[in-house]
Amino acid sequence: MNANFAQEFVSDDPEALREIGELLKRTIDIGLAFKARKAFFVPGEGKAQNEVMTESLPVDPLPLAAVLSELQTAYLPGMTNFGSPRFLGFPDAGNSASALAGAILGELLNVNLINSTFCARVATEMEIATIRWMRAVVGYPEVRVMESAADVGGMVLTGGTMANYTAVLIARERAAPGTMVNGISYDPGKLRVVIPESIGHYTVAASMAWAGLGSGNIIRVPIRDFRYDQAALGRTLEEVRERGEKVAMVVAYAGDSRTMTIEDLVGVHDLVRSFDASVWLHCDGCHGTSLSFSAKLRDRLAGIELWDSITLDPHKVLAVPYPISLLLVRDPAGAASILTESDLIMRQAMSLGQMTPVLGSKAFLALRLWVAMKTLGTRGLGRMVEERCALAQRFADLVDSHPELMRINSVQINSVVFVYVPQGVRLPMSETEAEALSTLNRHIYERILREGEFYIHSFVGVDSLNMLGCGADFRLNVLRYMSGNPITTTETLDEAIEYIVTLGRAAVLRTE
Ligand SMILES: Cc1ncc(COP(=O)(O)O)c(C=O)c1O
């Protein structure tokens, strides 16, 4: 705290207000300078990570101004800046001015969305409005009667993980009604959740673990071109039925986290429904649901409105700062099936705390999206998403026209997965050559990470389009550009390509 107590706590004292205002302005200036920094991080500057975590317990007070200065000079240089135009690994830029205004104001208001009367009057209604707007954006039916939180048909949550977990709980309750109250009476080995192999997100298996379904009971169905192989999906559903088991949930991706491929949402919906109309269909659209803001791109999500639940992570795809994710539920009764009650705090009909599993107190996270939606409108957000997709296409063209780079996915949203291939390497590759190529690309990534100049992501991906010629199930270390930051320019992309190729040439391909 400040040495001077009077200037530590906000009050209506004009002198304290002025001083605190100055310090908070300074705080914002430091944050903005950090965001405006081009370098992803500055290696070697500021305190070492070991030094940071072993610092001694602060006992004597210091002025806030001194703490802020130390933060800026000693801690921020080593921190990674997702708002940098050279952060090319993920779209989570968090640099929308309107969203930042909403986030900062949300902190200042400090309302608690657990309860709708004394904790979050008006804020509750703003959060509900945000969910209604998003339901309209994805094409869900309008909820006409809104008498309680159970009618809202969606939740504002802390992230995609939480949204997927909530969807799993809803699916479990549908497959085994009464579990919320009576506990587990089903045989977990007989209640299955289906995801696509190799591209499914780890959070689904984790959610099954947390929900008492057992992560081991997940079924991974083979893919073709980064989507469900529908013949294999049909066989899986048939086998599950023959074994006397039940599929509680099928998960599909509107933008899987690696390649951003969009599932055939109509085809998979129809196929699953033809087997069992009660299966919960969950579309993890943490990334891809954003296309529904654009009149030009919305068609790529055809059928999304048929799915029982849909996620969207504004903190990934709308330049909104962490954290905020939405889970939208087509029929609000689904969400209502996992409602919890408390006499002490949530007994008012509109208290949104009833609807969010695990969370008690919840900050006004919706405000960051509310302000962004009001300010940019769906038109502005749509334009942002369109420009992002165009930038990814531009990077794909640069990769395709470079003799030492090879793209291994088809670009449907904003992810370009590629590898550096030294000159002279011929296709198809032998497995030994492809393994060596994988190691070489890992080395490129390690150097990117050390230097902090740019950030390009890397992971072990499957070559589903069989670009290397070692089979569609061959796995290798790949590089990945994902567009998202609206301030990244085509010049930045040119520089990034040059940088990667320079690193690639410096790395050695060893096949012996
Ligand atoms: C498709 C998908 N779903 C869920 C998640 C989890 O989101 P979060 O990290 O916000 O919890 C991610 C994150 O990368 C994702 O890409």
A few lines on this structure:
This protein has helices spanning 14-36, 49-53, 64-75, 97-109, 123-138, 160-175, 179-182, 202-210, 230-242, 265-275, 314-317, 332-336, 366-400, 431-451, 490-506, and strands at residues 154-157, 191-196, 218-221, 223-224, 227-228, 246-253, 280-284, 309-312, 325-329, 405-407, 415-420, 457-462, 475-482.
Your description of this structure?
The protein has 512 residues and is of the alpha/beta class. It contains 15 helices and 13 strands. The strands form three sheets. Strands 1-9-8-7-6-2-3 form a seven-stranded mixed β-sheet, with helices on both faces. A four-stranded antiparallel β-sheet has the order 10-11-13-12. α9 (230-242) packs parallel to α10 and α13 crosses α15 (490-506). It starts with 13 loop residues before the first helix and ends in a 6-residue tail after the last helix. The model has no long low-confidence stretch (mean pLDDT 96). It binds pyridoxal-5'-phosphate. Pyridoxal-5'-phosphate binds next to α6. Pyridoxal-5'-phosphate (PLP) binds next to α6.
Give keywords.
alpha/beta; 4-stranded antiparallel β-sheet; globular; 7-stranded mixed β-sheet; 512 residues
Helix content: 25-40%
Q: Report the strand count.
A: 13
Poorly predicted spans: none
Radius of gyration (CA) equals 25 Å
Provide the structure class: alpha/beta
Bound molecules: pyridoxal-5'-phosphate
Tally the helices: what do you get? 15
Principal-axis shape equals globular
Q: CA-to-CA gap between the ends?
A: 62 Å
User: Main sheet?
Assistant: 7 strands, mixed
Beta-strand content bin: 5-15%
Mean pLDDT: 96
Write down the secondary-structure element order. HHHHHEHHEHEEEHEHEEHEHHEEHEEH
* Spatial arrangement of strands, main beta sheet: 1-9-8-7-6-2-3
